[in-house]
Design a protein that fits this description.
Length: about 625
């Protein structure tokens, strides 16, 4: 056999360590296995080297692990069959394809001359009869166009230009009388209608495409990657087409060895008489092996052994399921345990500690599908019994399939008017759940979307607190109700009232800049502000927020140094500002002004420290 395929280069990055070492050890252990016979019924195949032995694994992100002769070219043979089946599904649609060929395993050899006369079609596309019938569905107006388009399809799958081994093709065409018999029998019963020689020519060419283990692993990885070629990023097949291909590979891919294979390896796979086998680990990787000596059934002996060992050693059997539906809820807490970053008065904190259990937060993780979505909606229903609001944080959940969307949509419809408020956070515009939210394709309008869980908690705490405090507007209550001035007598409060200046800020306006001199502190009269620091990467991190009655910038009273954070108004805000110099001046006549404020400040800082400790305890 000859080939114009460029020299193959194996991946050699440091990431190759354990898996490459495993493959090399497996290769060396199985190389001495000298059982089996090279296929000779296609004369040109008999020249293959029985000790050419390669293994390749390609991941869904395109990383290639190889061992042995993974770059050695050989003809794809029957390993082409699932791919042409996928191409027919893509070109003609599933209904037309099912008219042409069935989906029942035969339990017979690949070249058996049995046809499904009841349905007037071959049994399945993995045996020769079915694959020949599928060849008739290849798109293109002329034999040349059909060949060119089919080759383009295979090139796209491999991510490089493949060629045809003309010697193998000629050998198959000249000796493939059994396939010829099958094609004429199918013509006789109307299973195909095109001239059999045209159909066979394309079928023999399809079987004579030169590939390497590396190519086959990458093609398998394309199937594992839901139809997108891992290296080129090209979308070649749809997930539904892949599902149909993998189903037939599972039931018929290994011919009359299919049952044993399913039992021991448990991966959809396909073999070819030139000695190739490829298997698909859906969502993870593709495996390919090349070793020409075949067993009685026509499967590569080393190829079967390699797949058995890899599947067993890495727990890859399709039914050894490790889906963790129980971890879908990463963490659950109540607003009594973890509060928002909003600084609160002592009285508010007491209310939140007592009543905050009515606000629940669920942090969801991983993909949402039937099983995990079921867990989530069951927990939501239980929480709905005793909560006034539930926040679902989707920060660590990036995917939801249609089944999960349906379940969540129905569960969500029960919230809002009848049940508790539902607030979802961290659902960006491209998230599949977005469709269910207000403004999305199926949005119910019952769910509130907020960018992050802290903001959601803050709003829900405000709602809860509004039922316990008459007003949150300091403009309408006296300075003496501010925690910082708690304990001061009327005379002191009067003195402070004479020292206050009031400022208005618009939403987003900066109140304090990190690094500026700290010579005044503020009390929020109405509105709210966020205190944030700049992280080393330049992003802003909100560390706290303040509302009416809360003070900020009080560190100025202690060290009078520089501001350590930025403060921005969240909404239109009125603030009372107290100059540190003025407070010190008042304290000359009334020293208790300063001592009381400092004492209250210590209490406030202690409360914040306790809160930070509680948060760490509850969130770790
Ligand atoms: O039809 C044939 O005989 C070959 N071109 C392909 C057969 C094949 O690879 C069977 N697989 N194990």
């Amino acid at each position: 056999m000859s080939s114009s395929i460029p020299a193959f280069e194996a991946g050699t990055s440091a990431a190759d360590g354990p898996i490459s070492r495993y493959l090399d050890a497996l290769h060396d252990r199985l190389l001495p296995l000298r059982d089996g016979e090279i296929a000779t019924y296609i004369p040109e195949l008999s020249t293959a080297d029985p000790d050419a032995f390669g293994i390749a694994i390609a991941t869904v992100d395109g990383h290639l692990y190889t061992s042995g002769a993974a770059g050695h070219p050989f003809t794809i043979q029957s390993m082409s069959k699932p791919f042409t089946y996928g191409y027919a599904l893509r070109s003609c649609g599933v209904a037309r394809v099912l008219e042409q060929v069935g989906v029942e395993p035969t339990g017979e050899a690949f070249n058996s001359i049995i046809l499904d006369n009841v349905n007037n079609r071959p049994f399945n596309p993995m045996v020769n009869a079915g694959a020949i019938a599928v060849s008739e569905l290849m798109p293109g107006d002329t034999p040349e166009a059909r060949l060119a388009m089919m080759m383009d399809f295979f090139n796209d799958l491999a991510g490089r230009r493949l060629d045809i081994d003309e010697a193998v093709f000629a050998s198959e065409r000249d000796t493939g009388h059994r396939n010829r018999a099958i094609a004429y029998m199918m013509l006789n019963s109307g299973m195909i209608t095109s001239p059999p020689e045209d159909v066979l020519e394309l079928y023999f060419k399809q079987c004579s495409i030169n590939v390497t283990c590396a190519d086959m692993a990458m093609m398998a990885a394309t199937l594992a990657n839901h139809g997108t070629q891992p290296v080129t990023g090209r979308k070649i097949l749809d997930p539904d087409q892949i599902r149909d291909m993998l189903t037939l590979m599972s039931t018929c891919g290994m011919y009359d060895y299919a049952g044993q294979w399913a039992y021991e390896v448990g991966l959809p796979a396909k073999s070819g008489v030139a000695g190739g086998i490829f298997a698909v680990i859906p969502g993870q990787a593709g495996i390919a092996v090349y070793s020409p000596p075949l067993d009685q059934v026509g499967n590569s002996i080393r190829g079967v052994a390699v797949c058995k060992e890899i599947s067993r050693d890495f727990g890859l059997h399709a039914f050894s399921d490790r889906t963790m539906v129980q971890t879908v809820i990463r963490r659950e807490y109540r607003a009594s345990e973890v509060r928002s970053k909003r600084l609160r008065s002592v009285a508010e904190i007491a209310v939140l500690a007592r009543e905050g259990h009515r606000i629940a937060v669920l942090e969801v993780q991983g993909a949402l599908f039937f099983g995990s979505a079921e867990r989530l909606i069951r927990r939501l229903a239980a929480l709905a019994e005793d909560c006034m609001a539930i926040v679902i944080d989707f920060k660590r959940c990036s995917d939801a399939d249609p089944a999960a969307l349906r379940l969540i949509e129905e569960a969500v419809a029960r919230f809002g008017e009848a049940g508790p408020d539902l607030v979802v956070t961290h659902v960006p515009g491209d998230h599949p759940l977005r469709a269910l939210l207000p403004g999305g394709a199926r949005g119910t309008g019952r769910v509130l979307t907020l960018p992050d869980t802290d903001t959601a908690l803050e709003e829900l705490e405000n709602d809860l607190l509004s039922g316990f405090f008459e007003t949150d507007d300091l403009a309408r209550f006296a300075l003496k109700r501010i925690d910082l001035f708690h304990g001061l007598d009327e005379g002191c409060i009067k003195a402070l009232e004479g020292a206050v200046s009031s400022f208005q800020f618009s939403a987003g306006q900066q109140v304090i800049r990190e690094g500026d001199d700290a010579n005044a502190f503020f009390v929020v009269a109405s509105g709210a502000a966020s205190i944030s620091v700049t992280l080393p990467g330049g992003q802003r991190k909100r560390v706290a927020s303040v509302g009416p009655g809360q003070s900020f910038g009080e560190m100025a009273l202690i060290d009078g140094g520089k501001r350590t954070a930025d403060v921005h108004a969240d909404s239109a805000m009125i603030c009372y500002a107290f100059s540190v110099d003025r407070i010190r001046e008042i304290a000359k006549a009334r020293p208790e002004v300063l001592t009381t404020i400092l004492q209250n400040l210590v209490i406030s800082l202690t409360t914040r420290l306790r809160m930070a400790n509680d948060e760490i305890r509850n969130l770790v």
